[in-house]
Design a protein that fits this description.
Structural class: alpha+beta
Radius of gyration: 14 Å
Protein name: Transposase zinc-ribbon domain-containing protein
Helix content: 25-40%
Shape: globular
Strand order of the largest sheet: 2-3-4
Strand content: 15-25%
Order of helices and strands: HEEEEEH
Distance between the termini: 24 Å
Number of domains: 1
Number of helices: 2
Number of strands: 5
Largest sheet: 3 strands, antiparallel
Length: about 60
């Protein structure tokens, strides 16, 4: 797939729910602005702070 086609797919895709990798809670939010560095996320439930979060691909789950 070409770069332009990939970018179009990402732009038009639905946002995926994000979950904390430590407590699996959904009360997680971006703690830094996106830009050159990766976005840092923070969990309000357990205090986790880091660049990694869990995402669920609903389209993929429905096909199983």
């Amino acid at each position: 797939m070409r770069l332009w086609e990939t970018l179009k797919l990402l732009r038009h895709s639905r946002p995926r729910p994000k979950f904390c990798p430590r407590c699996e809670g959904h009360n997680i939010y971006p703690a830094s602005m996106p830009g050159i560095l990766p976005t840092t996320y923070r969990c309000r439930d357990c205090g986790y702070q880091g660049p990694l979060v869990l995402e669920i691909d609903r389209d993929r789950d429905e096909t199983r």
